[in-house]
Structure formats: C-alpha cells, structure tokens
Amino acid sequence: MIEGAVIMFRELLEAALVLGVLAAATRECPPARRGLRWGALAGALAAMALGIGMDRLEASFSGEGEFLLHAVLLLSASVLLSWTVLWMRRYAAAFAAEMRARAERAVRADAPGWAVGIVAFAAVAREGSEAAFFLLATASTGEDRLVLAGAALGAAAALMVSVLLHKGLVRLPVRTMLHAVGWILLLMAAGMAGRGVWNLVVIGWLPPLIDEVWDLSAWLPNDSVLGTMLGVLIGYDAAPSAMQLAVMAVVFALLAWRFTAASDTTPSAR
Fold this sequence. Notes:
single chain
C-alpha cells in the first residue's frame, strides 16, 4: 500500500505542477486553456489504456514464463524509477522553465489551443504511463489490492496538495518534499531490483550464492502485515539469498551516491 501511495503521489504531483505552470502561462488565453484541459484528459486516458494493456499481457503468462516476466517488469521498473528520480533531482528547475517557455511561446504566437494541448498531453501521458508501469511491477508481488488502495490514497493526496498550492492556501516546500520522496523511491528501486533477482534465482537463471543468509520467518514472516508492507516497500524477504542482498545493497549504494551528488541547478536539461 505504501509503495503504491508514494509512487502515485510523486507522479501525479509532478504532472499537476507542470499543468499548474501551463495554466498560469495561459490564464488570459481561453483557447489555450481549453487545449490544456483536453490535452490533460487525453494524456490520462492514454496512460490508463497503456496500464490496462500491460495488465492483460501480464495475465497471459504462467509457470516459468510468469517468473521471467515479473523479473523483467521489476528490473525494468527499478531502472526507470531510478532514472526518473535522478533526472528530476538534477533537472527539475530546467524542466519547469522549459514547460513555462513553451506555453508562453504558444500564447504569444496566438497558436491554436491544440499547441498547448500537446504539451499538456505529453506531461500527463509521461507521468501517468510511468505510474502505470511502476504499479504493475509492484503488483507483481501478489498484493494487488494493497497496491491499488495505496495508489488511490497517493492520488488523492497529490490532488489535494496540488489544489492547495494552486489556490495559494498553503505554501509547502515542494522541493524539500520531493527530495524526501525521492529517497523513499530509491529504496523502492533497490527493493524492486532485489525482487527481480529473486524471480531469476527461482527459475535458475541466477545462482543464489547462499540460499538463506538468515531466516526471520519466526519473528517477521513475509505474509504478516508488517512483512507484507516491508516486502512491497523495500523488497523485504524473511529468508533472502546472498544474491538478493548483494544486488539490493549495490543498487541502493550507487543510487544514493548519484542522488546526493546530483543537483537541479543545471541550466539546461539537454
């Protein structure tokens, strides 16, 4: 639940912040505002369609193929999630400035509403597609209902924060908040990598090195409430193999190093 909530909160908040920039730049241009609304709606529908398609594809696999698919999903999601967090950490300011400049150019040039709509579509479709992919990878652990419930909570929280910021009712340190969320997502990325490796160990594609480094099943089993939450959040396994632990440790160490070294003061995202 927590992982789904954090993923949806960050992705939707990023999309909402971009839309807020576009809305501010097109305040005096009704055609552009209409294009903004329709573009955002089309982007959301495109992301939903992609999510449904990926879910149906996943349901068509079974046996060893299912383990392999889950490994591919989890490892791919780990890479994409890591790249997204590190990229936004480094280029967030430049990205927001570019969105604002595009909208202002469209308004100054008296461009039709669809010009702004395309920018809105790209922003929403990108964030929504990433969210759908991450949630599908997370749900591959078998806790579909918890992930969906968490996603709903995260979406509601992101929308509430976005509305409050847009209305000027609160002044939140968005940069600090996204920085904290970024650390949580990096933990999730390392956990996803560990769970992906677990699937490959199960089907014999990777050696376990040591089958069980420790066994905490008697104190914190995987199917307990806390064990389930930690499993979804950081890839907790009561009896992990040495390969799982090594991959998780290396991935998190590398990501933490890059995240700490990154800076969003770079003048250009290109």
